[in-house]
Every structure is written in structure tokens, then in C-alpha cells.
């Protein structure tokens, strides 16, 4: 593989082609999906950047299947992705946080051999207060016969992903993705409308600096989770306390911890017995990225990528980031410490 440095001017399209060339049997379909996702990301970035000026802030007035009040940008981002992806001929179905059921490819369009699952806008509660939000996506190969994708094609363990990534609409717009050959970051140059390679082969520090957790749920945590948080905060176990940074957008918290080292924890608790975050289009794609970067992602009891999904929108507890902190979570939640 061509070894790029952060100063070489490499567009995401060129990088995708270079990666594809390593696989003579590649048909270019996965590359096409990644191009289309990059296009959708630019379109969403354009809307997010000017959300305060157009009438696209605030609530849509509808609830999604999660029981959340949909924000106008949730719905708009969802439409942008569906319209950018539904006619490329590479997908046979899609699934979105914002849609109750799988999204079929419209009649008249060719069906391909991949399914796409996505969180069109992550961190919606932050839109109106101008705090970074994101998009998260996951690609898997169709495993059933027939032309259209089915629920069975979606309900595969995360280790079956062929590509995954996220976009963060922050101080700059960045797209980070993996196809299993490392995790690579691209920064949007708005003056030319191109994602340029800025973070080749990202590696997460083995030991974290930051802890991202919403501890307003402490009263609902199990004793093991409370013990784990005391360890993270340096109150037990003798480790240096982690600095607490919690944005309320999973993508923003995850991205900071990926680059600087840290752990994001969203435990299950009495009021959310399976946690809050969604397995298929939040935990799985970020788990693929973090493992490619040398980190870990766990439910607290097993590797996220090994969980066998039962439902499209199922939730999972999530401990994700630096290896040391996630392994500590596994040990303490198993009662080994
Ligand atoms: P989404 O906006 O896609 O529904 O995701 C929101 C998620 C995630 O982004 C964030 O980490 C978490 O909700 C915050 O939950 P709390 O407000 O309960 O801390
Ligand atoms: Mn939501
Ligand atoms: Mn989300
Ligand atoms: Mn969302």
C-alpha cells in the first residue's frame, strides 16, 4: 500500500482507488458506496454549517421509532443519504436510525450486493446550540438470496462489516473510515469541496487521557459500574484520574478519544437495561474503527463486534476507546477487580 504522510495532497477518491487496487477481485462497488457517502457528507455539512440561517433548526414535530423527537436536521440528513445512495446500484437495502423498517431500493433501480446502515445525524440535541454533530455508517455484504436486501442481511454481527466510518461536523468537517486496512481520516477543504487525507492510519493511545460519561445516571448504575467509575476517576486502584470530557454527541466524544486517548462509557442502567446507544449503526461502526486503530469496544461483557443482533434498533451498553480503559471495564464488570 502506498504510504502517505499528512502533507501529501491525496483526495479521498484517490485513496479509495489505491486501496481497491490491492484487491484484484474488487468490482469497485464498495468504492462506489464510499464515494457516494463522501458526497452525502458534503451535502449534510453544507446544511449543518448554515443551519442557523435557514429554517432547519429545531424539532420536526414528529417522533422516530426510538421515541425521540426528530430534529429537522435529523430528517433532512436522512433524506440526503437515502437520495444519494438509493440509485447507485451497489446497495440492496438500507436502514436508518430515523426509519422504523429497512429502506428498500426503489423499483427500476439495480440492486447491488451490500447493505448500508446509518445514523444520519448523531448528537441531534446539540444542533441548536452549535455543538459538533456527526453521521455514522456501516456497510455489510448481503447474505441472503433474492434481489432485495432483507432484515436478515442487516442482523449480522459487527465483525461482518466490510466498511464503516463517521463524519464529524466540528471546527472542520472530517470523514474517518475503514475497510479493514487501518482507519484513515480526511478533512474537507471547503475551498475546493474535496476531502483530503489528513490523518493516515490513525492509532489510538493504549492508555487514555479522557473519560466521556454522563454521570447524571450514577444513581441507576450497578455497584460494578460505580466501582469502575471510581477507578477511572483515580479514587480507587491507584491510576491517574482521567479528565472528564462529555459533549453529548457520541461522534464528537469518540473522535477526541480516538485521537488523544480515552474511553467513552454509556453503561446499562436500571432505566435503560440495554444501554442507550444503538448496536447496528452507532456501536458497531465505531467499534470497527477503534479496533483498526488499536483500541477496543465492549458491552462490558463481550466484544461489541461479536454481538449477534436480534432487532434492527437494538441498544447496547458501550465502553469504547483506549485498550487499557476498556479492558479495565471488562475486568471490573466481570467482578475480577
Ligand atoms: P442521536 O442524536 O443520533 O439520537 O444520538 C444521541 C446519542 C449520542 O450521540 C450521545 O452520546 C448520547 O445520545 C447522549 O445521551 P445522553 O443525553 O443520555 O447523555
Ligand atoms: Mn436520535
Ligand atoms: Mn446517534
Ligand atoms: Mn441520530
TrEMBL record:
Superkingdom of source: Bacteria
Entry EC no(s): 3.1.3.11
Broad class of the protein's primary localization: cytoplasm
SUPFAM superfamilies: Carbohydrate phosphatase (SSF56655)
Keywords: Carbohydrate metabolism, Cytoplasm, Hydrolase, Magnesium, Metal-binding
Residues that bind Mg(2+) 1: 97, 119, 121
GO terms assigned for molecular function: fructose 1,6-bisphosphate 1-phosphatase activity; magnesium ion binding
Subunit structure: Homotetramer.
Annotated family: Belongs to the FBPase class 1 family.
Designated name of the protein: Fructose-1,6-bisphosphatase class 1
Origin species: Gemmatirosa kalamazoonensis
Amino acid at each position: 500500500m502506498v504510504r502517505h504522510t499528512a502533507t501529501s495532497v491525496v483526495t479521498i477518491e484517490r485513496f479509495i482507488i489505491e486501496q481497491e487496487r490491492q484487491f484484484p477481485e474488487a468490482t469497485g462497488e464498495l468504492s462506489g458506496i464510499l464515494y457516494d457517502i463522501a458526497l452525502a457528507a458534503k451535502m449534510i455539512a453544507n446544511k449543518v454549517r448554515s443551519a442557523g440561517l435557514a429554517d432547519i433548526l429545531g424539532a420536526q414535530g414528529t417522533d422516530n421509532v426510538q421515541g425521540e423527537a426528530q430534529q429537522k436536521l435529523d430528517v433532512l440528513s436522512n433524506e440526503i443519504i437515502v437520495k444519494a445512495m438509493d440509485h447507485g446500484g451497489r446497495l440492496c437495502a438500507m436502514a436508518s436510525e430515523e426509519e422504523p423498517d429497512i429502506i428498500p431500493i426503489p423499483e427500476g433501480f439495480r440492486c447491488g450486493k451490500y447493505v448500508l446502515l446509518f445514523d444520519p445525524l448523531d448528537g441531534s440535541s446539540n444542533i441548536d446550540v452549535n455543538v459538533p454533530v456527526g453521521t455514522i455508517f456501516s456497510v455489510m455484504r448481503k447474505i441472503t438470496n433474492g434481489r432485495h436486501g432483507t432484515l436478515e442481511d442487516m442482523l449480522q454481527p459487527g465483525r461482518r462489516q466490510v466498511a464503516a466510518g463517521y463524519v464529524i461536523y466540528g471546527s472542520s468537517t472530517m470523514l474517518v473510515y475503514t475497510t479493514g486496512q487501518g482507519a484513515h481520516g480526511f478533512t474537507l477543504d471547503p475551498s475546493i469541496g474535496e476531502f483530503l487525507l489528513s490523518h493516515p492510519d490513525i492509532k489510538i493511545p493504549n492508555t487514555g487521557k479522557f473519560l466521556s460519561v454522563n454521570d447524571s445516571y450514577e444513581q441507576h448504575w450497578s455497584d460494578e459500574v460505580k466501582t469502575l467509575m471510581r477507578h477511572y476517576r483515580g479514587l480507587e486502584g491507584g491510576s491517574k484520574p482521567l479528565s472528564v470530557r462529555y459533549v453529548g454527541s457520541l461522534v464528537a466524544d469518540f473522535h477526541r478519544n480516538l485521537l488523544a486517548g480515552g474511553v467513552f462509557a454509556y453503561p446499562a442502567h436500571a432505566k435503560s437495561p440495554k444501554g442507550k446507544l444503538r448496536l447496528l449503526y452507532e456501536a458497531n461502526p465505531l467499534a470497527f474503527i477503534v479496533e483498526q486503530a488499536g483500541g477496543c469496544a465492549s458491552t462490558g461483557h463481550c466484544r461489541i463486534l461479536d454481538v449477534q443482533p436480534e432487532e434492527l434498533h437494538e441498544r447496547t451498553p458501550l465502553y469504547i476507546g483506549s485498550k487499557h480503559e476498556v479492558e479495565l471495564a471488562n475486568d471490573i464488570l466481570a467482578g475480577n477487580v
